[in-house]
Amino acid sequence: MNDQHPIGTGFTAASTTSDVLAGVDLTGRNMIVTGGHSRLGREVTRALASAGASVTVASRDVDKAAAAVADIPGVRVETLDLTDPASVDAFADRWISSSRPLHALVNNAAVLNTPELRLDSRGNEISFSTSHLGHFQLTRALLPALGQADGARVVNVTSGAARFGEIRWDDLAFSEDYNPGAAYGQSKRANVLFTVELDRRYADNGIRAFAAHPGVIIGPGPQDPNRLASYRAQGLVDEDGATIIDPANGKKTIEQGAANLVFGATSPLLDGIGGVYLKDSDVAIIDDDVRPLTADNVPSDANSAMLDPEDALRLWRLSEQLLS
Fold first, then answer.
1. Which among 178, 184, 202, 277 is annotated as catalytic?
2. What is this structure's pTM?
């Protein structure tokens, strides 16, 4: 955790993708964004492509994804189902066969709001399977291509929920006491722990890893009427259902949230750094105080537990077993 401290980037919670990419030329660089066709992922795709990158969007639904990014030049779409090991291997094999170096892999796809327990074909809880296990398999399969690039980056999109999430080492699949919030928190904690161990293993090969928290983003557009009461209680929408934007307290626009992911994937300010959790387009502070979650305050700084190197190694080994 020696690198886990702010580096004074000059960016703020309100900085946008345009701000962090000012003066950055990505011409000739190849990048993959999983789930890069929707909401946050689409803005990451758009921003990277606008700076000259060749972006591949990886999605389960190629037709839907292609339609969503049709107006963004320099983007291709390929099939990837992160819950299907064969699909992950096929995607990686296609990339490796192309002999293209991979300069940045943004592991963005996730499954949210699953009120009832869902399992993949291997019996893994769906949030953990998508957000962590599929990305773990994909990243390892793409290591040869990442190793070809000069200064490759892996960005694992996490959440402030990693601060509260816990790994249920003896019951990852929630065979007892399923709770959607706990499942989501586990998957987001896993994203950070994966980052820590990935960077430890491959930094010497020129591959650096970052966990990036985008903030809380629910807009724009009409909100799910079934969730409006919850959103109001969390201070995310007003009485009329309009999104409340308050970057200083983590409530951001899509452009502001995506900025931190793009920062992790591209910023030269991060050269020589890795294995850290990013917030507000900077390296986050470590805050180990117990801070309650309220409508006016969503604690999302790093804490020591989510960066624990022993847990990171344990999760890596467990993930290998689950994929064997």
1. 184
2. 0.95
